[in-house]
Amino acid sequence: xxxxxxxxxxxxxxxxxxxxxxxxxxxxxxxxxxxxxxxxxxxxxxxxxxxxxxxxxxxxxxxxxxxxxxxxxxxxxxxxxxxxxxxxxxxxxxxxxxxxxxxxxxxxxxxxxxxxxxxxxxxxxxxx
Length: 128
What we know:
The protein is 39% helix and 10% strand. By secondary structure, the chain is α+β, with helices and mostly antiparallel strands. Helix 1 (9-19) runs parallel beside helix 6 (93-101). The protein is globular and about 45 Å long.
């Protein structure tokens, strides 16, 4: 499905909840994006290690996914350095649909972690 750009964070999460029954039919619900995504910083190539503004945001995401997925709905105001990590939100928003499709009992794992070009989190979240 194409990403609906006009929906709120809450509506995207609820869209995921609406899609959740498809999982019982063997349909995989995947969200594609980058958990940190600042192209102008990435292409500058000035970092020899991930800067704090990236690692703090990535750590907040990990905690939120493990402990309180509802916190993702306020990511733009509550996550540290949200605006710097996502000058525009389209690369983060697919996570809201995927998280909404997961049940509260689904464990979350991170099969891929690390950073690309020091400012792009490669963290992949898998539910269930």
